[in-house]
């Protein structure tokens, strides 16, 4: 009996020692080339710039890297200057022992934008990267022009990790489980499988990126972020954002409760909600064409990008867009570039419906397999003889009972029986109470980060 206890004690001691050693693992970039790395907040950050035009900054989320944006970045580069970066602790950037969480992430984004002289930039954030983008827009309104957040939790209870990945976040033993996943690719695949609705959409890059971090970066990023968004702290700050906001979520997201879209959009005047069906946590990977079209339509104000999702009927194309030459030959129009001005104002024109809407977010969902057209900006009519739609016409989203939900329902989803239930829900009325101050008890994360 005594020998058994000694052996058990030795095993536990070895496990604890290994966990402490792995938990203090930190990595630095070995060779930082000036064209690919910039030093911000004391760490080397890997970045990439492509395209030309107005600035768009793409911010990845937890356990991923800037590689998730490759397809969107390539599409946006045709009209925008696209900046991508690996956040501290992930991808090919430095991985220090501290400096994680939403507050530190937003400071890093601010330093990144300041380094490149970006103002009124379009910011697109995924997962916790979306929360960092929200914090950036709330703290530095002059930096952000338009904001898109994708699969972003508004409260800690809206995060639901699979068991295999939850073990990685545990204290003491978490570093050991993460080390196991880093060396065993099948384990990493089990981690990331719930991130997509269809296993065929799980790319090798996603699986690889999950093992390129460190235990400290993985656990501290999540634990600090949970505290910072708990009880709707960050969701209350979103009410001061006055810029156009697009909130995107996959209806089958099993990592972040899709109900979070109502919390984010509920407090913003110029907000839209886009729900993508048959899609999980990563719409930029799972529904590439549909997702890219929604982003381009939002950033440019040109609804013709949505024709990529549902092609215009042939008869309509002939009636409105085809060109007939002198010989009688008909040629389809190929002009889908939209207005040359990518920085058009997306704010809605004042109408008698504004008071009735009471600043409710627009919910963009498919009707008959198609997305409803967005309201074109005023500039869309400036160079043509076409008059803006009359206030009572069906072209106005405000007046269309089919396209606009006059009242945001308390539950946006009718879950199928096979859908995995999430944990406790955070209701907008609980997290956005008027009696709480925006900055009330906002955590500084002392101990893991410097404020």
What does this structure look like?
The protein is α/β, with parallel strands linked by helices. It has one domain (37-302, 338-451): Rossmann fold. It is built from 16 helices and eleven strands. The longest helix is centred in the N-terminal third of the chain and has 22 residues, at 2-23.
Q: Detail the poorly predicted runs.
A: 312-359, 375-451
State the fourth-level CATH superfamily.
Alpha/Beta hydrolase fold, catalytic domain
Q: What is the helix fraction of residues, given as a range?
A: 25-40%
Q: What is the CA-CA span between the terminal residues?
A: 51 Å
Rounded Rg:
24 Å
User: How many E-type strands?
Assistant: 11
What's the topology here?
Elements: H1 2-23, E1 37-40, E2 43-51, E3 55-59, H2 70-76, E4 81-85, H3 102-115, E5 121-126, H4 128-139, E6 144-150, H5 163-166, H6 174-183, H7 185-192, H8 204-209, H9 215-229, H10 233-237, E7 245-250, H11 260-266, E8 271-276, H12 283-286, H13 288-300, H14 314-320, E9 323-324, E10 330-331, H15 353-357, E11 362-364, H16 428-431
Write a concise synopsis of the structure shown.
With 451 residues, the chain is α/β, with parallel strands linked by helices. The protein has a single domain (37-302, 338-451), classed as 3-Layer(aba) Sandwich (Rossmann fold). It has helices spanning 2-23, 70-76, 102-115, 128-139, 163-166, 174-183, 185-192, 204-209, 215-229, 233-237, 260-266, 283-286, 288-300, 314-320, 353-357, 428-431; strands at 37-40, 43-51, 55-59, 81-85, 121-126, 144-150, 245-250, 271-276, 323-324, 330-331, 362-364.
């Amino acid at each position: 009996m005594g020998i058994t206890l000694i052996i058990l004690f030795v095993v536990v001691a070895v496990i604890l020692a290994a966990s402490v050693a792995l938990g203090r693992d930190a990595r630095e970039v070995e060779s930082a080339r000036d064209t690919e790395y910039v030093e911000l907040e004391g760490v080397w950050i890997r970045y990439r710039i492509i395209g030309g035009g107005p600035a768009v900054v793409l911010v990845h989320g937890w356990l991923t890297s800037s590689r998730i944006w490759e397809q969107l970045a390539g599409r946006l580069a045709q009209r925008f200057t696209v900046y991508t970066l690996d956040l501290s602790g992930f991808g090919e950037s430095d991985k220090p022992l501290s400096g994680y969480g939403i507050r530190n992430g937003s400071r890093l984004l601010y330093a990144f934008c300041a380094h490149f002289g970006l103002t009124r930039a379009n910011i697109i954030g995924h997962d916790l990267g979306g929360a960092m983008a929200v914090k950036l827009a709330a703290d530095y309104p002059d930096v952000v022009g338009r904001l898109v957040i994708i699969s972003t939790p508004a409260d800690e209870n809206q995060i639901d990790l699979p068991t295999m990945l939850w073990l990685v976040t545990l204290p003491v033993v978490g570093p050991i489980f993460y080390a196991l996943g880093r060396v065993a690719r099948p384990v990493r695949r089990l981690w990331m499988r719930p991130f997509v609705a269809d296993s065929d959409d799980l790319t090798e890059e996603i699986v690889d990126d999950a093992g390129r971090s460190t235990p400290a970066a993985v656990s501290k990023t999540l634990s600090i972020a949970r505290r910072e968004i708990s009880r709707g702290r960050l969701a209350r700050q979103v009410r001061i954002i006055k810029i156009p906001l697009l909130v995107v979520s996959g209806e089958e997201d099993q990592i972040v409760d899709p109900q979070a879209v109502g919390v984010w959009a509920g407090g913003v005047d110029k907000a839209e909600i886009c729900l993508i069906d048959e899609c999980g946590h990563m719409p930029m990977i799972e529904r590439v064409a549909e997702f890219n079209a929604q982003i381009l339509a939002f950033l440019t104000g040109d609804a013709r990008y949505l024709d990529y999702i549902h092609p215009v009927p042939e008869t309509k194309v002939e009636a409105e867009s085809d060109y007939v030459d002198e010989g009688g030959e008909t040629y389809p129009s190929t002009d889908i570039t939209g207005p040359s001005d990518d920085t058009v104002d997306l704010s809605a024109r004042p109408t008698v419906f504004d008071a009735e809407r009471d600043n409710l977010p627009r919910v963009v969902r498919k009707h008959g397999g198609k997305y409803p057209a967005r309201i074109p900006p005023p500039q869309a009519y400036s160079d043509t003889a076409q008059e803006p739609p009359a206030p009572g016409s069906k072209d106005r989203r405000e007046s269309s009972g089919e396209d606009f939900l006059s009242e945001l329902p308390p539950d946006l989803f009718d879950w199928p029986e096979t859908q995995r239930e999430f944990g406790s829900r955070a209701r907008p009325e609980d997290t956005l109470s008027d009696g709480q101050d925006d900055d009330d008890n906002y955590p500084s994360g002392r101990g893991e980060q410097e404020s």
